[in-house]
Amino acid sequence: MPPQTTNFSSEFPDFTSQSSSVYTPQPNTFDELVAPDGSIRPHWQDFLKDFSNLDAPQRRRVHETATRLLKDDGVTYLAGKNGQQTNRPWQLDLFPVVISQEEWQLLEQGLIQRARLLNHILSDLYGPQQLLKNGALPAAVVFGNPQFLQPCHGVPVPGGTHLHFLAFDVARAPDGQWWVLRDRTEAPTGAGFALENRIIVSRALPDLFDDTHVQRLSSFFQSFNEHFLQFSQREDPLAVVLSPGPQNATYFEHAYLGRYLGYPVVEGSDLTVRDDRLFLKTVDGLKPVDLVLRRIYSDLCDPLELSTESSLGIPGLLQAVRAGHVTIGNALGSGLVDSEVLLSFLPALCQFFFSEGLRIPSVATWWCGQPNERAYVL
Question: CA-CA distance, 365 to 124, in Å (whole number)?
Fold first, then answer.
């Protein structure tokens, strides 16, 4: 769903003056904008100074410009259910959440730790399964999870890297502490929309955007591309974005990422497996595919070995992976650590692998398969 938007073009108070006269934070709750002493937090000041210099007609023009740019770029999402989905225009809130560089670095370090932890868990559960043998994880947590794909057990993963592209839902507690609400490892969305949002804001508010020294997003996509391409054995690899197709709610992002990264956006019917190798069908014949950035859930990717009811996948894909001829990001079966049931075990698993605690805690979670936790919840 798109963000809830503010009325950007309406009258806006002058936050550069004493904030208490125009805005009163809620008591006993962390406020993003205002410090406990009532002053504007330092990392907000440049933005608010420039923003307050815009009068109502100027803000209205900025809002209209952003709306037009989104329409021109065709930014939409599918909404609805039961076959009644319709394309709706993406709504962009031009008023941002500003995070200081220091705090962003803390978030970055915590999420990097978390990504490494999730990758270690996947490597173990689809490999030696020491976590099950030593009781660090109950067997029911793994084998009772429909996203544990038994055919993927023992399948080699190049470099031991299961997770190439992932996302996290985070939120603040009332005391200002960041918490992770959800790990998204299957087919995480949002990066393409974030990039489009950033581009629109930079065009609608170019001076304000430059003056506030916003950290750029392009380096992230460049780093990802360099990282992903290194997993190919060929000098000139072909990487593709595997999408369910235009009927998917976030197809715009699939197309946007493909265009930005230079990867063809394909559907399962565009690909075929021959002699344990994956190929793209083209008018010039079959072209070998080395890398797949998938936007399809793992169990739908191969109707031969995974879900036989899937019409979105490629028969024989898992065997091509098993033979070492194609790398998939994220690796098939990565949705196993996408489950909230794992959250309650992450602190202990972090100690197990890294001998340290989680830098960013998970939201409080209890797995009721354990007697004490079940008694507490019930």
Answer: 23
